[in-house]
């Protein structure tokens, strides 16, 4: 532990102890908290570090239930410093992550994710790894790493147990929201659309179901109708609201790309009709995404036609082979010159 970290720990430990002593002697302290303080005091006087750690965790749990995240964090940190095993450290790390999720403290979350991964390299049981996967997925989602979030969610879709963080229905909602914006169609088909776990609750979130089904079945008008409603859900979500505009933009790119893949050329009017929007809207959207390099197509304004500019895969492979061959030949020539010397 660094000197600055040690000083920080000592600061909040001293502050917490001072508040605890004041509360122990106050008649206004809730009975439940007084009992926990008494349990801690007995552990400090008569029992082991393990008992002290457990008492501190209980106090931390009490404060998180009361919504006092700072006091909860103080007690969890003190308990962590008394933890002797990897499993006990992981238990406390997961509790600290819950506090960080509650306070939306991304710095603390990043630190705890890194700490948990280090601890899992040393050990940790399956149950904790399974819970951590869900925590880490939500963290990735908060950091706008939708692909890694989706992969994490899908890894535990059949074993999700982290209901202390989110409900199973919300978990499935996040799984769909992150998957359709970041994963390929084959993966979505296998692991999302046809997932028994997804199917078990999809009817509880009809607008998410409409979004997924509309995109998967190429019913773009239905997809766009659902998208406007899902954007509102994302805008009001506690973990990803700050990424709502980015997510909405990426979803439109996904839908436009999927639609255009089916055509070498298609009229603006036809595309507008498929999406249930005006020609001007499609024209404006495509121009923006083409300019940003997000769509491989061009627009013939005179004839109102969109032309795909898909790269020739075989030509690309051939060019890579030639490029790598030239690189290898140059290395061999240099080696030959060295050997001649």
From TrEMBL:
Keyword Cytoplasm: no
Hydrolase listed as a keyword: no
Residue ranges with Basic and acidic residues bias: 13-24
Composition bias, Polar residues: 1-11
Pfam families reported in the protein's UniProt record: PCI, RPN7, RPN7_PSMD6_C
Keywords in alphabetical order: Proteasome
SUPFAM superfamilies assigned to the protein according to its UniProt record, in alphabetical order: Winged helix' DNA-binding domain
Any one biological process term the GO annotation gives: proteasome-mediated ubiquitin-dependent protein catabolic process
Record domain PCI: where: 145-313
UniProt region (Disordered), positions on chain: 1-28
Assigned GO CC terms: proteasome complex
Name of the protein described by the UniProt record: PCI domain-containing protein
Species assigned in the record: Stentor coeruleus
